[in-house]
Amino acid sequence: MIWKLAETGMNVARLNMSHGDHASHQKTIDLVNEYNAQFEEKVVAIMLDTKGPEVRSGDVSQPILLKEGQEFNFTIRRGINTEDTVSVNYDDFINDVEVGDILLVDGGMMSLAVKSKTHDLVKCKVIDGGELKSRRHLNVRGKSATLPSITEKDWEDIKFGVDNQVDFYAVSFVKDAKVVHELKDYLKGCSADIHVIVKIESADSIQNLHSIISASDGAMVARGDLGAELPIEEVPLLQTDIIRRCRSMQKPVIVATNMLESMIDHPTPTRAEVSDIAIAVREGADAVMLSGETAHGKFPLKAVKVMHTVALRTESSLPISISPPGQFSAYKSHMGDMFAFHATTMANTLATPIIVFTRTGSMAVTLSHYRPSSTIFAFTNVGRVKQRLILYHGVTPIYMKFTDDVEETFSQALKLLLTKGLVIEGQYVTLVQSGAQPIWRRESTHHIQVRKVLAD
């Protein structure tokens, strides 16, 4: 199934550490690695999503039906599972919750008003009912839990990620940049080349958005908890703002949660869900994410296909720009940015794909920032760079060993693209060189070429 998901359009496999154990996640990692070993021009990156300081209800033997108006309790005593009382996994829950607060269960699928509390019990009245299942996420509207962003369990999972050389960490409930620096220092000490994606999902993170995103390698708009902790009408505006901030900093941004929620149980999406995907694409997101739809939904392949085809169709309708984005003036003094802009302009004018050779991925990232209308084929001789580039908009990373002869390397790249059907004979391509070129030597040269693809 994982291989089928990849063939249908999945670029990144997310390991949700809120569920499963290391043994089960290891099986997924092994299957993804097997897939990646088969192809030069295809890749699925691995993102480890930390559980974070989640407040969850305890296990229940069977779903508890909550009805509007009934009384229901949450207790910090472990192992409680009755018709009217269930445990929570967080001892300070009593202190964080005040009378009058609104508790949201499962991102707002159910809600309860806090009526009173004792030293170990929070007594509530059900406002919106539903089925309470095991380990459901609890939020207090307008508040964040006082737990640390990286818990002891998270550190164990992070080490598991280092041992398995995952490509990204998605760090849950990031409240400030200090958390990101702490994790990056740890990774540096481990000599681990793993990028940090911050999940923007707590009320506390909004006031620190700029510093959090600046410290990170990218961001995820985690709309579920964001809409639970903040007024729901603020979520679309925050999504737009976070995407804009990431674009201005040349960092990838992921839009996540509830994108095709109805496809957990149904084979076709709602029209509103289709529009939601299209809006994220038009706003400039690098990636859109599925969670429950593929984790436990009935139609995982159909969900990926819908997301893939809607994203492609929306991209094909976007206007082709030949003028620099608003922030271009801030970057024009940098040679790489100048070349990326002009390469994009040339590729858009001639309707050609772009070919770039890179060891670090930086030029491919910069080109992605300018959103050329055609594919960016990023050739690299570094496996980790190939894995990471798959997250960036419009980039198709390809692993290839570079030779000492520049023309031979260019020729090999064009031949590979031709063989795989990624370009056709007679087609023109825009080839970008910027920085230390030829790539495997120390000479420095900067130029853009347009070449015609010819078969041997």
From TrEMBL:
<dbReference type="Pfam" id="PF00224">
    <property type="entry name" value="PK"/>
</dbReference>
<dbReference type="InterPro" id="IPR015806">
    <property type="entry name" value="Pyrv_Knase_insert_dom_sf"/>
</dbReference>
<keyword id="KW-0067">ATP-binding</keyword>
<keyword id="KW-0150">Chloroplast</keyword>
<comment type="pathway">
    <text>Carbohydrate degradation; glycolysis; pyruvate from D-glyceraldehyde 3-phosphate: step 5/5.</text>
</comment>
<dbReference type="InterPro" id="IPR018209">
    <property type="entry name" value="Pyrv_Knase_AS"/>
</dbReference>
<dbReference type="GO" id="GO:0000287">
    <property type="term" value="F:magnesium ion binding"/>
</dbReference>
<keyword id="KW-0547">Nucleotide-binding</keyword>
<dbReference type="InterPro" id="IPR015795">
    <property type="entry name" value="Pyrv_Knase_C"/>
</dbReference>
<dbReference type="GO" id="GO:0016301">
    <property type="term" value="F:kinase activity"/>
</dbReference>
<dbReference type="InterPro" id="IPR015813">
    <property type="entry name" value="Pyrv/PenolPyrv_kinase-like_dom"/>
</dbReference>
<dbReference type="InterPro" id="IPR001697">
    <property type="entry name" value="Pyr_Knase"/>
</dbReference>
<keyword id="KW-0808">Transferase</keyword>
<dbReference type="InterPro" id="IPR036918">
    <property type="entry name" value="Pyrv_Knase_C_sf"/>
</dbReference>
<comment type="similarity">
    <text>Belongs to the pyruvate kinase family.</text>
</comment>
<keyword id="KW-0479">Metal-binding</keyword>
<keyword id="KW-0418">Kinase</keyword>
<dbReference type="GO" id="GO:0004743">
    <property type="term" value="F:pyruvate kinase activity"/>
</dbReference>
<feature type="domain" description="Pyruvate kinase barrel">
    <location>
        <begin position="2"/>
        <end position="304"/>
    </location>
</feature>
<keyword id="KW-0934">Plastid</keyword>
<keyword id="KW-0809">Transit peptide</keyword>
<dbReference type="GO" id="GO:0005524">
    <property type="term" value="F:ATP binding"/>
</dbReference>
<keyword id="KW-0460">Magnesium</keyword>
<protein>
    <recommendedName>
        <fullName>Pyruvate kinase</fullName>
        <ecNumber>2.7.1.40</ecNumber>
    </recommendedName>
</protein>
<keyword id="KW-0324">Glycolysis</keyword>
<keyword id="KW-0630">Potassium</keyword>
<keyword id="KW-0670">Pyruvate</keyword>
<feature type="domain" description="Pyruvate kinase C-terminal">
    <location>
        <begin position="342"/>
        <end position="433"/>
    </location>
</feature>
<dbReference type="GO" id="GO:0030955">
    <property type="term" value="F:potassium ion binding"/>
</dbReference>
<dbReference type="Pfam" id="PF02887">
    <property type="entry name" value="PK_C"/>
</dbReference>
<dbReference type="InterPro" id="IPR040442">
    <property type="entry name" value="Pyrv_kinase-like_dom_sf"/>
</dbReference>
<dbReference type="InterPro" id="IPR015793">
    <property type="entry name" value="Pyrv_Knase_brl"/>
</dbReference>
<dbReference type="InterPro" id="IPR011037">
    <property type="entry name" value="Pyrv_Knase-like_insert_dom_sf"/>
</dbReference>
<dbReference type="GO" id="GO:0009570">
    <property type="term" value="C:chloroplast stroma"/>
</dbReference>
